[in-house]
Specification:
Strand order of the largest sheet: 5-4-7-8
Radius of gyration: 68 Å
Structural class: alpha+beta
Oligomer: single chain
Distance between the termini: 160 Å
């Protein structure tokens, strides 16, 4: 309505501006000192041809031209024969002529005229240069016979719906100067041709062809023949092929809004979107709502394009929008289309719902997957009204429903969860507000990461293996980690056992070596010789046998005897009464001299339990010398039977 009110004043202003410009131009033309005339010969032609042109340009003013004048032919090219390459500066009262030739075209002959153009500059009242342009028009007359048929074709509608009719109209115009007859038009979309018997110069005739379109496009083409009244020669005219397009509708209408609701008295924007994926163009489209009335008009929706428009509405209560569009199209039809419903809520700030969710966890990392995490969610009602039926969700999974929370009231939900992977965790509270709109509130996000436990660098004790009450199939990765830990424990245990066995082995080896050394020291180590006779020793051997003295016996009693020393004792002839075995069963051997030999130097190897006999007293020097000889004499073990 505002635009309509402004149309009339705007039109009047435009008209005044045009009149003012015309007045200024007329005033400038009245003061224009340039005269421009043209003459041609011949002035009558029977066909397109060349004519001679004579041009004259004069300065009728009292002042010289500030800038040169420039001459152009009908084709817009400079006339080189005029002045200096087409330009010439005129003094006050001077003139300039030019002779030229021009080839009159058929179009110019049909129009009956052609023109040359002169351009120049003049000063206005403010002293500024203004460009002027003036034409000199030459009249020519066509005096020959001209046979010409002008054809215009119109296809209606531009796009045709399946099963609908299409109309092809031919406008036949006699643009020549002779009568035309027997004009015949054969249109491809029709089985029948149509004929115009006669068409005088300047007359027009209309022929119409109609057909129905099926499920595919059509093509319009025509064969046109005619004759001049003064001849029997058949002439023909051609028109280009034109497609007749099958309509393919593809229009969608949607309405939306950036906000689900606004406060009372605020403006809500409603977006109306037309999505045209078809080949039909819609013009002069209007949109209206049942309650708000018509709010969009004069909309054009081109084929294959999307058009979006917005309209603001002040809302004081929740409003449901559902619009209907009136759609005139280029198929000749006018259809209507209804959009989806759009509910925009209206909120009272004092009754707005506001919840806060505070989320905490007992840990921020887990040593294995799946892992155990305890979440604590505190929900607080910070609104001025009671909140009811609050659904607590994790993603799309309902965790718990809080029956009600009074204004300012809080409640805490604690849950233990087994998480299968690391990531960010967040909980959502969802409920209805006073307008029954669903509102949601989110907690902050908590990042839980997977952090494998660090092994303690000490020997771990051998674990006591117990049969679990129930076997649980764990993911592949935790099983692999547990298997590695078990192998490490077994390796540590095996290493401890091996170390213990090694210590025991070394200890037993040392004990055996120590016992062997002590046992070896019990026996005399005798050198091998050629002969050793314990029953019939050589005389020289007897001479070297030391004589044990009473003092030596006393020293032996006073000092502890070595094991090998306990085996050797002296004896007298009375002790030799019975023969002794070579081996007494205790590991010792008996040594004796033959009968008739001196008895004071006879020694006997006794058992460890026998007492030692006293030897005849000898000097200490002889004892030491006898011991030295005994150690150096060769010894031979008695053979069996000796």
């Amino acid at each position: 309505m505002i635009a309509r009110k402004l149309q009339r004043p705007a039109g009047l202003a435009l008209l005044l501006m045009v009149l003012l410009m015309a007045f200024v131009s007329a005033h400038a033309i009245e003061n224009d000192p340039i005269e421009f005339t043209i003459q041609v010969s011949p002035t009558k032609l029977t066909e397109p041809g060349e004519v001679n042109v004579s041009l004259r340009v004069a300065n009728t003013g009292n002042e010289d031209m500030i800038a040169p004048v420039t001459l152009y032919d009908p084709a817009g090219k400079l006339v080189g024969s005029f002045g200096d390459g087409g330009s010439y500066r005129l003094s006050a009262g001077a003139f300039r002529t030019c002779e030229d030739t021009w080839l009159v075209t058929e179009e110019q002959l049909d129009a009956g005229e052609f023109a040359y153009t002169l351009k120049y500059h003049l000063q206005d009242e403010n002293g500024e240069l203004v460009e002027f342009s003036r034409q000199a028009v030459a009249r020519v007359e066509f005096t020959g016979e001209r046979v010409k048929l002008t054809i215009n074709r119109t296809i209606t509608p531009e796009v045709v719906r399946s099963g609908k009719s299409v109309t092809v109209v031919y406008d036949l115009y006699n643009s020549g100067n002779v009568e035309l007859k027997d004009i015949k038009v054969k249109e491809q979309i029709s089985k029948n041709s149509q004929t115009v018997k006669s068409l005088a110069p300047g007359e027009k005739e209309t022929l119409t062809f109609t057909t129905k379109i099926g499920s595919a496009d059509l093509t319009s083409s025509a064969a046109i023949t005619y004759k001049a009244a003064s001849t029997t020669k058949v002439l023909s005219a051609e028109v280009e092929d034109a497609p007749i397009i099958l309509a393919k509708p593809g229009l969608k209408l949607e309405i939306s809004s950036d906000a689900a609701g606004v406060n009372i008295g605020d403006a809500a924007k409603v977006k109306v979107t037309f999505i045209n994926s078809g080949n039909i163009t819609y013009s002069n489209v209007s949109v209206k709502d049942e309650k708000k009335g018509e709010f969009l008009t004069n909309i054009t929706i081109p084929a294959g394009e999307t058009v979006q428009l917005e309209k603001e509405f002040i809302l004081t209560e929740p409003t449901t929008f559902k619009v209907t569009a009136t759609l005139p199209d280029n198929t000749g039809n006018t259809n209507t289309m209804t959009s989806n419903e759009l509910l925009i809520g209206v909120f009272d700030p004092d009754k707005a719902m506001l919840l806060t969710l505070n989320l905490t966890s007992d840990r921020t990392s887990v040593p294995q997957m799946p892992g155990q995490v305890q979440f604590a969610l505190t929900v607080t009602n910070n609104s001025n009204i009671k909140a009811e039926n609050i659904d607590i969700l994790h993603g799309d999974t309902l965790i718990y429903t809080i029956p009600a929370l009074e204004p300012g009231e809080s409640t805490q939900i604690v849950r233990d969860y087994t998480i299968s992977q690391a990531g960010k965790f967040r909980f959502t509270a969802s409920l209805k507000d006073t307008m029954q709109n669903t509102v949601t509130f989110d907690s902050k996000e908590i990042q839980i990461v997977y952090a494998r436990a660090t092994s303690v660098p000490t020997v771990r004790p051998v674990p006591t293996l117990t049969v679990p009450p129930q076997a649980t199939i764990a993911p592949a990765e935790p099983i692999l980690h547990q298997a590695k830990d078990a192998v490490k424990v077994l390796l540590v245990v095996a290493g401890g056992v091996f170390a213990g066995l090694l210590v025991l082995f070394l200890a037993s080896t040392g004990v055996r070596m120590y016992k062997k050394m002590n046992a070896a020291s019990v026996y005399d180590h005798l050198e091998l010789g050629e002969r050793r006779n314990y029953t019939d020793p050589a005389d020289e051997e007897l001479d070297d046998v030391p004589v044990r003295t009473e003092q030596a016996s006393l020293r032996e009693e006073q000092q502890p005897l070595m094991p090998h020393e306990k085996l050797v004792r002296s004896t007298d002839d009375s002790a030799m009464g019975a023969p002794l075995p070579y081996n007494d069963g205790e590991g010792g051997y008996r040594v004796s001299r033959n009968a008739g030999e001196p008895k004071e130097e006879v020694h006997t190897i006794l058992n460890n339990n026998e007492t030692q006999a006293q030897a005849p007293a000898q000097p200490a020097v002889e004892e030491e010398e006898g011991a030295r000889r005994r150690r150096t004499q060769p010894v031979q073990r008695m053979e069996d039977g000796e």
